[in-house]
């Protein structure tokens, strides 16, 4: 079986969040199952030079965007046994960031066209093109409706929705101007605009989301983001398959970012907390509970709840660590707290992979009170390091974290309603268990031994791949 992953980012070349992590780890797990899996993504200016220097030119040609011609070069790099193709076009990809530009939609229309034209130019015909989010959602639409020659005849398409909120919305006439498709094409139209994600949902052979609960949530309000009627119409081909995490990359036994490596020893984990306290000038005491947020600082992540409750949380005796960037009001709030509560609070307003590992290894708990969370990797990584998640029951958080109860079963602490009072109540419950050391060690063991690897998700995907190929 030949599978091509098409995505806007992938670790270690380009990453802004969970999508980058998934593209960095999922293909390797498929390869272990004997799949010929390859990845295609843009050649961004920010890709580290060490990788750019290893890329080899494969082919160059012109991509036709209606009446325009745009240059396309394809370069190849083999990394960890996976073939990566990089679409080279400096007009679109030589910018200082991956997203956030006025031509984002045009850029990813170009990218989608370049993928399909590039496959034909290279004479690589995959059985499945597995597309991710709106950036490549035009691919299933084009394969179904416009690329009808024999080369594309047997290709099946899969679309994974990592976050329904982002859809690639155009004015109809702008989309028509780029690809010459009549404005009346229903598959791309939503609320009188062109919508790339809708086109992908309607056209793909299989649509997946990154958790089972999220697949149900997005078929109803309030999380349907105006596409819930379309998703309900296509429910027969929607599957919720949880992401996994790379157990080689996230491994407390070998992680060089930690002060002290450990396998499943709670005593050795605590030594990381003491060293973190020492390095960042917090009172050194293994018995002080440490809670962390490792997140984008946005309302979606529940940071408004945290802001409302922060003084109450600190009043419970926690040390609190925040790592992330996001909305200005939250960044300033956390910066000011560091000055106000210098013996309890530290804010790192930055994106820092190594520091995040130190915090996973040092903190006792991570807090994720998200409004919605399609999958969430933070809680999975935390459990891998024996750090206990406190989460709201939504999306992938609900599917991965179970409430620790009196029978000593469960992997964390959960609350239901998006309310400050409920969040505070469950934080207090976590603190109560924390001070019962026998129970806390049991909870630590439950969390650190939970299997959140790619093994189960990959097997589920393989079953779905086989179904659409045999359909």
Number of strands: 18
Q: What is the oligomer described by this structure? A: single chain
User: How many domains?
Assistant: 2
State mean pLDDT (0 to 100 scale): 95
Structural class: alpha/beta
Task: Look at the structure and give the CATH class of the largest domain.
Answer: Alpha Beta
Unreliable stretches: none
Number of helices: 18
CATH architecture of the largest domain: 3-Layer(aba) Sandwich
First and last CA, distance: 15 Å
Strand order of the largest sheet: 3-4-5-2-1-6-7-11-12
Strand content: 15-25%
CATH topology (level 3) name of the largest domain: Rossmann fold
Please give the share of residues in helix: 25-40%
Largest sheet, if any?
A: 9 strands, mixed
Shape: globular
Computed over alpha carbons, the radius of gyration is 23 Å
Fourth CATH level, the homologous superfamily of the largest domain: Glycogen Phosphorylase B
SSE inventory with pairings:
Elements: E1 2-6, H1 18-32, E2 36-42, H2 49-52, E3 56-65, E4 68-79, E5 82-88, H3 90-93, H4 104-122, E6 128-132, H5 138-145, E7 156-161, E8 169-171, H6 172-179, E9 189-190, E10 193-195, H7 196-203, E11 206-209, H8 212-217, H9 228-233, E12 238-240, H10 266-279, E13 290-294, H11 303-315, E14 319-323, H12 328-340, E15 345-348, H13 353-362, E16 365-368, H14 378-384, E17 388-392, H15 395-400, E18 413-415, H16 420-434, H17 437-448, H18 455-470
Helix pairs in contact: 4-5, 5-7, 10-13, 11-16
Question: Can you put this structure into words, describing what you see?
Answer:
With 471 residues, the chain is an alpha/beta fold. The chain folds into 2 domains: 2-244 and 455-470, Glycogen Phosphorylase B (Rossmann fold); 266-448, 3-Layer(aba) Sandwich (Rossmann fold), CATH 3.40.50. 39% of the residues lie in helices and 20% in strands. The chain has 18 helices and 18 strands. It has helices at residues 18-32, 49-52, 90-93, 104-122, 138-145, 172-179, 196-203, 212-217, 228-233, 266-279, 303-315, 328-340, 353-362, 378-384, 395-400, 420-434, 437-448, 455-470, and strands at residues 2-6, 36-42, 56-65, 68-79, 82-88, 128-132, 156-161, 169-171, 189-190, 193-195, 206-209, 238-240, 290-294, 319-323, 345-348, 365-368, 388-392, 413-415. The strands form 3 sheets. A 9-stranded mixed sheet has the order 3-4-5-2-1-6-7-11-12, sandwiched between helices. The chain starts with a strand and ends with a helix. The relative contact order is 0.10. The model has no long low-confidence stretch (mean pLDDT 95).
């Amino acid at each position: 079986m030949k599978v091509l992953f098409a995505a806007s980012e992938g670790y270690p070349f380009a990453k802004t969040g969970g999508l980058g992590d998934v593209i960095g780890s999922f293909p390797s797990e498929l390869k272990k199952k004997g799949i010929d899996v390859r990845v295609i993504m843009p050649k961004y200016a920010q890709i580290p030079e060490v990788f750019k220097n290893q890329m080899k030119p494969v082919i160059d040609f012109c991509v036709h965007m209606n009446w325009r011609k745009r240059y396309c070069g394809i370069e190849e790099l083999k990394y960890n046994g996976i073939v990566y193709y990089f679409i080279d076009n400096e007009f679109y990809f030589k910018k200082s960031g991956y997203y956030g530009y006025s031509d984002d939609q045009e850029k990813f229309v170009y990218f989608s066209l370049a993928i399909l034209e590039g496959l034909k130019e290279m004479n690589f015909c995959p059985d499945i093109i597995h597309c991710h989010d709106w950036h490549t959602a035009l691919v299933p639409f084009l394969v179904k409706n416009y690329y009808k020659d024999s080369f594309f005849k047997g290709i099946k398409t899969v679309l994974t929705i990592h976050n329904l909120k982002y859809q690639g919305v155009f004015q109809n006439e702008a989309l028509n101007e780029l690809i010459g498709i009549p404005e009346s094409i229903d598959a791309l139209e939503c609320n009188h605009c062109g919508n790339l994600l809708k086109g992908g949902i309607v056209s793909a052979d299989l649509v997946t989301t990154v958790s089972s609960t999220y697949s149900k949530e997005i078929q109803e309000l309030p999380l349907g983001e105006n596409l819930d009627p379309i998703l309900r119409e296509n429910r027969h081909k929607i599957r919720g398959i949880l992401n996994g995490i790379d157990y080689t990359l996230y491994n407390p036994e070998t992680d060089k970012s930690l002060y002290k490596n450990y396998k499943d020893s709670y005593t050795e984990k605590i030594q990381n907390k003491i060293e973190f306290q020492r390095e960042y000038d917090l009172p050194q005491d293994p018995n002080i509970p440490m809670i962390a947020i490792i997140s984008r600082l946005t309302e979606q992540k529940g940071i408004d709840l945290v802001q409302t409750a922060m003084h109450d949380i600190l009043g419970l005796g926690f040390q609190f660590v925040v790592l992330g960037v996001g909305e200005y009001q939250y960044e300033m709030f956390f910066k000011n707290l560091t000055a106000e509560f210098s013996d309890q609070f530290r804010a790192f307003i930055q994106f820092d992979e190594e520091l995040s590992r130190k915090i996973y290894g040092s903190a006792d708990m991570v807090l994720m009170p998200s409004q919605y969370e399609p999958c969430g990797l933070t809680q999975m990584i935390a459990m891998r390091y024996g750090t206990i998640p406190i989460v709201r029951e939504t999306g992938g958080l609900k599917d991965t974290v179970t409430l620790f109860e009196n029978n000593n079963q469960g992997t964390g602490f959960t609350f239901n309603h998006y309310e400050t009072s409920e969040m505070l109540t469950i934080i207090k419950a976590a603190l109560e268990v924390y001070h019962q050391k026998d129970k806390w060690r049991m909870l630590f063991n439950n969390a650190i031994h939970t299997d959140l690897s790619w093994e189960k998700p990959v097997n589920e995907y393989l079953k779905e791949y086989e179904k659409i190929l045999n359909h």
